[in-house]
OTU domain-containing protein (Opuntia streptacantha), 108 residues
Amino acid sequence: GSSPYNFQQLREMVASYMRDNAAEFLPFFSSEIEGESDDSLKEKFENYCREVESSAAWGGQLELGALTHCLKKHIMIFSWSFPDVEMGKEYKSDDGNGSLSSSIMLSY
């Protein structure tokens, strides 16, 4: 089906969610330089969020994790070379026929 959002709106929603829930994402931005300040880490995170918001860079697991919460949708990611990834299990709904009709399915 079609989406009520265009790609730019989705990117903005994801960046906003990441900012609003920074504690969930900051551990993935751990300091690479010993002694680096928390302010520097927060600045890197903000720069990352700006890139998510304003570029066409591919999203990864962090962005898909945010997207599942923004849309309140279960997301399945399929890849030929990697195991399937399931995100947003709390939003998974089964229509009774074993079909995941409200899930988003991505393949790459």
